[in-house]
Amino acid sequence: MSRGASADPVWLRRTLLTVGVGWIVLLVVAPILAVFGGALGRGGAAFLDAVFHPDTLSALKLTLLAALCAVPLNTVFGLSAAWLLSRFQFRGRNLLGTLVDLPFSVSPVVAGLLLVLVWGQQGWWGPWLSRHGIHVVFAWPAVVLATVFVTFPLVVRELLPVLQEQGSSEEEAAILLGAGGWTMFLRVTLPNIKWALLYGVVLSATRAIGEFGAVSVVSGHVRGQTNTLPLHVEILYNEYRFQAAFAAATLLVMLSVVAVAVKGFLERRAHR
Amino acid sequence: MSRKLPGFGLSMGIVVFWLSAIVVVPLVALVGKATTLPWEGWSRILLDPRTLAAFRVSVACSLAAAALNALMGTVVAWILVRYPFPGRRLVDALVDMPFALPTAVAGITLTSLWSPHGWLGAPLAELGVRVAYTPLGIVLALAFVGLPFSVRTVQPVLEELPGEVEEAAGLLGADRLQTLSRVVLPALRPAILAGFALSFARGLGEFGSVVFISGNLPGRTEIVPLLVMQKLEEFKAPEAAVLGVGMLALSFLFLLPANWLQTRLRRRR
């Protein structure tokens, strides 16, 4: 807190605090409360019925499966890409960096479209695959692929600035002292980047669990089979079963509250 | 930077394989599918009144939401950094909720809140203001999803702004408002702009939070991503691909400057 800012006149402080906190309450707090309001509107029994409905649970299972597949894959990729981009100079490095970041700027719906055009019946490999009995689009593999796409750059984005800032001198010292590549990675690199890595993993998991647009294009909405939790919420809502939709949504709200709490914890650890 | 470090071959292999499988091949497929249509097909789709209207709605609503976020995001970042008020850590955490909350959940809860029967929509409806199922609703949903981008680009810059400059301005006789508008605001401008662009780009592609609250009225509240979805459902993959290429081009137009601004900000820190 600098002295210059504490000199803000009282009326200015009051106005800005009211406007800022008021905006957060209106834009963020009210919608979260409305989820619980809608979920509990018809009493606790109806709420529990909707939460423990087999369709809700199977949707939850697919959501977690997609996250469990996508996050580790993208973590391995993220570590490799961040290592490559921060430690080596080579031709095409900038292009590679741009391509890695690209999924971030693609609309989720277009991401789903991309998958359909490669793996679907109107796509490149779809017809061949389906002749051999393999279905990707409108089945769970496409849900996983869509999740991979939307979480693609998240780990790299967190690791790259940290690795760049640290420089490579510690790692070079380890190699000169005779450490092998994996020893260097496990003993020198990993301890230095562990908080950023965990942070990226949490961000990816959060995004993976909540993804809607891309998954919505490729899943086919088969209830009990290819429905993720966000899609299940959508279907219930479109069937005017609002209370059930909000009850299922509370599961997602609670997952995001956990994610935000973990993120705050990691940020405080990383600052230390 | 040196070649003495191990792992070049392995990491290059992993990156090139995964990047090709997930990003490059699908993008080539998109462009390939779009080019199966002749030029007349492209212009027929892109210049169709319904398409043009959808692009207009998407761009206008994203711009309005990004501007709203630039203003409110700066206010929120300012109070978070400068004013120690009770509950500040909670407000700081709440700023991340729009990122963490699944967009579909945001969509249904915003709709129920602001619809003419909702907690906030009902009193407004009596005043004759409708939010849900109008462009105003789209702006609101996009302001929601874009909020963390604005706050989190301005906040770190504000944290590292040296207090001495403000004190110097004060000593030289500027009153507080002059200091804020002539010294602080110009220093924040690149960050505010970067947040604006990020929020705008996010808004252009946003789907989940918008489809519920927009009402999807063709020509009035229909957004481009929804149009892509409909083309796909009608098995018109090439037309969907053309729209997809159009959306990609539009978001690059705005994301490239935003990324450039952000790297510049990071370098300066």
Sheet-strand content of chain B, in percent, reads under 5%
Quote the average pLDDT of chain A.
90
The CATH architecture designation of the largest domain in chain A is: Orthogonal Bundle
**Overall number of structural domains of chain A:** 2
Q: What portion of the residues of chain A fall into strands of 2 or more residues?
A: under 5%
Tell me the CATH architecture of chain B: Orthogonal Bundle
- Give me the strand/helix succession of chain B: HHHHHHHHHHHHH
Largest beta-sheet characterization of chain B:
none
Number of strands of chain A: 0
Which stretches of chain B are low in confidence, meaning pLDDT under 50 for 5 or more residues running? none
**Assembly state of the chains shown:** heterodimer
Terminal Cα separation of chain A, in Å? 19 Å
Please tally the helical runs of chain B, counting DSSP H or I stretches of 4 or more residues.
13
Total count of domains of chain B: 1
CATH superfamily of the largest domain in chain A: MetI-like
- Biggest interface and which pair forms it? A-B, 102 and 99 residues
Nearest-angstrom radius of gyration of chain A? 23 Å
Task: Using the coordinates shown, work out and report the CATH topology of chain B.
Answer: MetI-like fold
- The assigned structural class of chain A equals mainly alpha
Q: Span between N and C termini of chain B? A: 21 Å
User: What is the makeup of the main sheet of chain A?
Assistant: none
Descriptive overview:
The complex is a heterodimer of chains A (272) and B (269). Chain A has helices spanning 3-6, 10-40, 44-51, 54-87, 93-101, 108-119, 126-131, 140-151, 154-166, 169-176, 181-210, 213-219, 229-238, 242-271. Chain A is mainly α. Chain A folds into 2 domains: 1-40; 43-271, Orthogonal Bundle (MetI-like fold). The longest helix of chain A is centred in the first third of the chain and has 34 residues, at 54-87. The two termini of chain A are 19 Å apart. Chain B has helices at 8-34, 39-46, 49-82, 88-94, 97-100, 103-114, 121-126, 135-159, 163-171, 176-205, 208-214, 224-233, 237-268. In chain B, α10 (176-205) packs antiparallel against α13 (237-268) and α12 (224-233) packs antiparallel against α13. In chain B, 78% of the residues lie in helices and 0% in strands. The longest helix of chain B is centred in the first third of the chain and has 34 residues, at 49-82. Chain B has a single domain (15-268), classed as MetI-like fold, CATH 1.10.3720. Chain B is mainly alpha-helical. Classes of the chains: A mainly alpha (272), B mainly alpha (269). Chains A and B meet through α1, α2, α4, α5 and α6 of A and α1, α3, α4, α5 and α6 of B.
